[in-house]
Amino acid sequence: MSFSHDVKEELSRNVSKARHCQLAEMAAIISMCGIINISMDNSVEIEVRTENSAVARKFYILVRKCFNVCPQVLVKSHSSNHRVHTYIQTIEVHNDAVKILKAAKLMNHQGHIDEHLFILDNVLIQRTCCKRAFIRGCFLATGSITEPTKGYHFEIVCNDKKKAKQVQDILNCFELDAKIVERKRYFVVYIKEGARIVDALNVMGAHVSLMNLENVRILKDMRNSVNRRVNCETANINKTVSAAVKQVEDIRYIEKHMGFGNLSDGLRQMAELRLSEPEMPLKELGERLNPPVGKSGVNHRLRKLSNIANELRERNSK
C-alpha cells in the first residue's frame, strides 16, 4: 500500500470527540467530493463519491454521530478494473440533507448553496481544533503525499480557486507555507518541504505516519551526509593526485632540459625525493628532507620547481 493510503487509514480512525470538529471535518469532505442534487420539486439530496474506503467510512461515521442519520451506501466496481471501487453515499431525505448542509455552512438560511460547495460561513472553522479537523477532511477527500523514499510532496486538489485559497489560508495558520498551482482545470494546494509535511501530518493528527516519515527522513539525511563526505574526500584525493602528477611532470622536464646540477641544494633534494616518492603526502616529504621542513616549506619548494619548469617550456617554445 502507498504512504498516502496509510495516512488516510490512520486519519479515518481519528474521530474528534467534539461535535464542532466533527462538523468541520464532515463539511470538508462534502465540499471536496460531494454533489448536491436538487429535484424538480426542489427537494435536496447529498451525494458523496470516493474511491477510498477510508474516506467513505469516515463520512458515514461523522454523519451518524452528528445527526443520527445513516447514508444509503452503494459500491460500484469499475468495468476496466474490478479491484477499484467507487463508494457512493447518499442522504436522500430532504429534511436531513438540508439540516446537514446548514450545519456544515454549505447552505445559508435562505437555502442558497454555493456552486462549488464553498464554506459560506467561516464560523465553522474559527477554532484551531476545527481548522485541524477541516484540513483532515480535505486531505481525506482529495489529498495525497508522495512516497517519502522518492521525494517530499503534499497536496490537496480543489475544483475552485476560492476553495483552494481557503484551504491554503487554513494550512498557513499553522505556518506550513502552502502554495497554490493551477493544474489543468483544478487548483492544487501543495507543500514541498519535508519538515513542513511532517508538521502537516501533526496538524491532521496522523502521528504514526509522522513517525514513519521522520524515520525515512533521518535515513535519507544520514545517507546524503555520508555521500557528501565521500564525494568531498574523493575530490580531495583527486586534487592531491593531480597535483602530485603535475609536480612529477615538472621535475622530469627540468631533469631532461636543464638537469638538477643548476638547482639549489634544497630544490635538488626536493626534486629527487618527489621523483622517488611520487605518492607521498607533503607532510611526510618534509620530514624526509635534511634538514626537515614543514608542509608549507615543501609547498614553497614544489611551486619554485613548477615555475622553473614553466620558464623552461616558454624558452624552449620560442
Rg, please? Answer: 35 Å
Number of helices in the DSSP assignment? 11
Mean pLDDT comes to 88
Architecture per CATH nomenclature, i.e. the level-2 architecture of the largest domain: Roll
Q: Largest sheet, described in full?
A: 4 strands, antiparallel
Percent range of helical residues: 55-70%
Low-confidence stretches: none
Structural class: alpha+beta
Distance between the termini: 73 Å
Order of helices and strands: HHEEHEEHHEEHEEHHHHH
Number of strands: 8
CATH superfamily caption of the largest domain: Homing endonucleases
Describe the structure in your own words:
- The protein has 2 domains: 3-205, Endonuclease I-creI, CATH 3.10.28; 238-317, no CATH class.
- With 318 residues, the chain is α+β, with helices and mostly antiparallel strands.
- The mean pLDDT is 88.
- The N and C termini lie far apart (73 Å).
- It has helices spanning 3-12, 19-33, 53-67, 94-103, 128-142, 161-172, 194-204, 207-257, 265-276, 282-288, 295-317; strands at 34-38, 44-50, 72-77, 85-91, 143-145, 154-158, 179-183, 186-191.
- The chain is built from 11 helices and 8 strands.
- Helix 2 crosses helix 3 (53-67), helix 8 packs across helix 9 (265-276) and helix 8 (207-257) crosses helix 11 (295-317).
- A hairpin with a 2-residue loop joins strand 7 (179-183) and strand 8 (186-191).
- The strands form 2 sheets. It has a 4-stranded antiparallel sheet. The protein has a 4-stranded antiparallel sheet with strand order 5-6-8-7.
- It is rod-shaped.
